[in-house]
Amino acid sequence: MATNYETHEFDVLVIGAGGAGLRAAIEASAAGVKVGLICKSLLGKAHTVMAEGGMAAAMGNVDDRDNWKVHFADTMRGGQYVNNWRMAELHAKEAPQRVHELEAWGAVFDRTKEGKISQRNFGGHRYPRLAHVGDRTGLELIRTLQDHGIHQGITVFMEYTIVSLLKDGDRVVGAFGYDRERGRFRIFKAKAVVVCTGGLGRAYRVTSNSWEGTGDGVSLAYHAGAELLDMEFIQFHPTGMIWPPSVMGILVTESVRGEGGVLRNKDGKRFMYDDIPENYKSQTSMDPEEGWRYTQNDKNAKRPPELLTRDHVARCINREVKAGRGSPHGGVFLDISWIKEKIPNSAEHIKRKLPSMYHQFMQLANLDITKEPMEIGPTTHYAMGGIRVNGDTQATNVPGLFAAGECAAGLHGANRLGGNSLSDLIVFGKRAGEFAAKYAKDNPAGTINDAQVEAAYKEAVEPFEHPAGSGSEGPYHVQADLQNMMQANVGIVRLQNEMEFALDGIQKLKARAAKVAVQGHLEYNPGWHTSIDLKHLLTVSEAITISALDRKESRGGHFREDFPDKDPEAQKYNSVIAKAADGSMKLRREPIPAIRDDLKQVIEEMKN
Amino acid sequence: MNKQVTFKIWRTDENGGGKFVDYTTEITEGLVVLDVVHKIQKEQANDLAVRWNCKAGKCGSCSAEVNGMPKLMCMTRMDTLDITKPITIEPMRAFPSIRDLATDVSWNFRVKTKIKKFNPRPPDAADGTWRMMQEDVDRVQEFRKCIECFLCQDVCHVLRDHHKHEEFIGPRFLVYTAALEMHPLDTEDRLPELKQAQGIGFCNITKCCTKVCPEHITITDNAIIPLKERVVDEFYDPFGWLWKKIRPKG
Question: Are residues B47 and A100, on separate chains, in Cβ contact within 8 Å?
């Protein structure tokens, strides 16, 4: 019975302690409510630390032509107009305040000559816009929020995993989970729950995501009745490490290209000049010399084609490799060392601008990026899709349930611009915290249903009851098979029959996942944890595949070889997934609400 | 190319004790220690406890002692180790064990909450923000590279051998304090605590922390020694003391 479990009571429970979760927890506690914060790992280790390039905010410190309207238009263009335009508006307007707030909490950004926060160029952003700290901006963000947050009276639960959200009627009233250290189950009772669990890249074999990116929050919310939005849009970052094999997928920041790095095929050709999309032609330079000047902050220069949006660059790389013009290990070359032709002491310059990248290649690949080109290829990086939320409040369709950050959807549309993720976390993390606190103040505590708790417990520990040996297998094998299948069939280039094969495969993997056996006991048992993550991965993989099958066009992160063009009709809807009464996953196309006239005008003005 | 390698991995038992268990496996080119631990976990010991996240040296989770040296497992390439002999992998020994390679590092998180938080001066620019020059933030940025892997805490003899966890905050939190004290905007005074409760005097500058730092922060020279000097100036300099008594306030 539920009374067997220790119960913690909060006004607001935040699940996930990356940038969005920490920011939500800080905001809620500042509103005067009692806040609990669940971290799957230790505090400050979340995947936010991996963000390198910066956070986009139209402060205009480097180029005073920048303002929220340009940022808004850039975000909509990048997202190919299926974004939640209200979120794109709020994001562009509020990001500068959120960045300044981080400075007030101790963040130390790189500076301009005038002593302001410096801003760098990034793909898809018209002006230098990314506040940054070398190439470790995510670490600065999470550490600043962590160091501020620990003095806010938030109760932090480190190394806890939530296995189920708890409901009272239609409303979410808490969560049920366990601590990894001892495997003790706990009930977290809360008037409002904010899900900030980040990404789902672990559904793929090659990914920049850490082990935590298993789509937990998306899956938890879905099973609690929340709708999912635009799950087909997955961002494959063009530059992941591909050699040696152990580092496959680890990100090589876009800043390498922002600082002048160029992409070449095995023949030494800068192949990005071969294919520049129509809607970016006016902003892109055909002259390598001008492109170089752009990276050195020449306001009158246009950007080099290496800084086109990520989906496009990733597909161009894919094309080169498929055409047999790739590098020895199946990627292409990314070269920053060539800038020695342009600036004296280039080695020192590169090390100062890209310290983590220098470090990463030196230590993991034994390669000096100041002297040699890197071998890179696309890696699963980011989910644009996720939990459907209200743009203003981050509330889901389930009362009491909120979501923010990567696990929520809408801001980025079909494709996210680099740098818009960190700003997303702080803008919408804050809003989620604010409105969750308000909800908690306006509503009484709900009632925890013992039967729900017992059912969740039974499901979580079931793998221990499966006899090892005959007929059963460990969770790692099922997970690996799923990752390989998604990689091969629902990846960067998609086809109807391959995705149908994957959808069928997911059902078979679900059956295998239900039977996995785990050895040992509940205490810090990674095999067991993987068996739980696996169910989330299967849920999100199914949602991705169903959505990708339905969208019969190519847009942003969703590219179909059988429908390679954009369909203007498909720009009018979002894909919404919900659990049907019979427990099956159902998709519907939901018309995108008409954009406000003033915002429409902004987009038109910025098209020139 | 493929070679056999034997790992001796520390496995705890139900009674809080533990022993090294041998695992032999085949390795390919380009692996790091964490890859091999994961391979063993996948193939031979599903329940082998190991903490990790990013696998790129950025989160500081996979700290352990590899052949007795405090290291991030994800950043230790196999080709830097002599694989003709068994390789030992054990947890950080300065912290209590949880299970296998996972240690209880919660003490570090408690220590941090006791250090006075960042307290900036009021904004000085007309737009409500601050101006800071790059030269003025360079040294603080060095300290802020810290990924909180706690390898410096693990190797510090004051903690590891003398167990002064109640009297000394360790290199990590001296770096953290230095980042706050040297922040151009900060107005707080943390020197009295550094001298008393946080025990900066226990550090006798053996520089082991600097040596193991995976972020190459010059912990001792750039953070601890300047803090020691500030403490000395504040509390042990008779002329300074006199000057503070008689100087005009303002």
Answer: no
Give A523's contacts in chain B (Cβ within 8 Å).
49, 98-99
The Cα A522–Cα A340 span in angstroms is 55
pLDDT score of B249: 59
CB A237 within 8 A of CB A335: no
For residue A301, count CB atoms less than 10 angstroms from its CB and return exposed for 0-12, middle for 13-18, buried for 19 or more: middle
Query: Any catalytic annotation for residue A494?
Result: no
In angstroms, rounded to a whole number, what is the distance separating the alpha carbons of residues A439 and A428?
16
Catalytic residue among A237, A412, A529, A551: A237
Smallest Cα distance from A93 to chain B, Å: 16
Reference A411, options A24, A57, A129, A75; nearest CA is A75
- A564-580 residue pLDDT tens: 999 999 999 999 999 99
Query: pLDDT for A431-452, tens place per residue?
Result: 999 999 999 999 999 999 999 9
Cβ atoms < 10 Å from Cβ of A418: 30
Residue A8 appears among annotated catalytic residues: no
Cβ within 8 Å, pair B47-A147:
no
Write out the two tokens for A306.
């290496």
Cα A77 to Cα A555: distance, rounded to the nearest angstrom: 11
- Record: contact B113-A151, CB cut-off 8 A: yes
**Cα–Cα dist A449/A439, whole Å:** 21
- Region B130-150: what's the mean pLDDT? 97
- Choose from B9, B14, B47, B216 for mutation: most chain A CBs within 10 A: B47
Residue A149 to residue A46: CA distance in whole angstroms: 15
Smallest CA-to-CA distance from A253 within A148, A133, A142 is with A133
DSSP label of B223:
I
* Shortest distance, CA B157 to any CA of chain A (angstroms): 24
Q: How much is the ipTM here?
A: 0.94
Rg (CA), chain A: 23
Taking contacts as CB-CB distances below 8 angstroms, the residues of chain B near A39 are none
How far is Cα A47 from Cα B195, in angstroms, rounded to an integer? Answer: 36
Which residue type does A245 have? P
Pick B120's closest partner by Cβ from A104, A111, A210: A104
Q: Which two tokens stand for residue B46?
A: 């599903």
Residue-wise pLDDT tens digits, A519-575: 888 988 989 999 999 999 999 999 999 999 999 999 999 999 999 999 999 999 999
Mutation for testing the A interface, residue in B44, B59, B188 having most A CBs under 10 Å: B59
Q: Specify the 3-state DSSP secondary structure of A486.
A: helix
Say which of B53, B55, B99 has its CB closest to residue A523. Answer: B99
Question: Cα–Cα distance between B146 and A46 in angstroms, integer?
Answer: 15
Residues of A304-330 as b/e, b for ≥16 C-beta within 10 angstroms? bbbbbbbbbbbbbbbbbbeeeebbeee
Contacts of A193 (CB under 8 A, 6+ apart): A12, A13, A14, A15, A165, A172, A174, A175, A400, A401, A402, A436
Write the secondary structure of A497-522 as one string of H (helix), E (strand) and C (coil).
HHHHHHHHHHHHHHHHHCCCCCCCCC
What's the residue count for chain A?
A: 608
Encoding tokens for residue B173? Answer: 């939190």
pLDDT at A2: 43
CB atoms near residue A417 (< 10 Å): 25
**Residue A539: in which H helix or E strand, if any?**
helix A526-550
Angle formed by the axes of helices A355-365 and A346-353, to 10°? 100
What the block records as the tokens of A88 is 């794109």
Rounded CA-CA distance A398/A226 in Å is 6
Q: Is A561 exposed, middle or buried (0-12, 13-18, 19+ CB in 10 A)?
A: exposed
Which of A102, A142, A524, A533 to mutate to probe the B interface, most B CBs <10 Å?
Answer: A524
Structure confidence by residue, pLDDT tens digits, B199-224 = 999 999 999 999 999 999 999 999 99
The residues in A 564-603 lying below 8 A from B, measured between CB atoms, are none
The C-alpha atoms of residue A68 and residue A56 are separated, in whole angstroms, by: 11
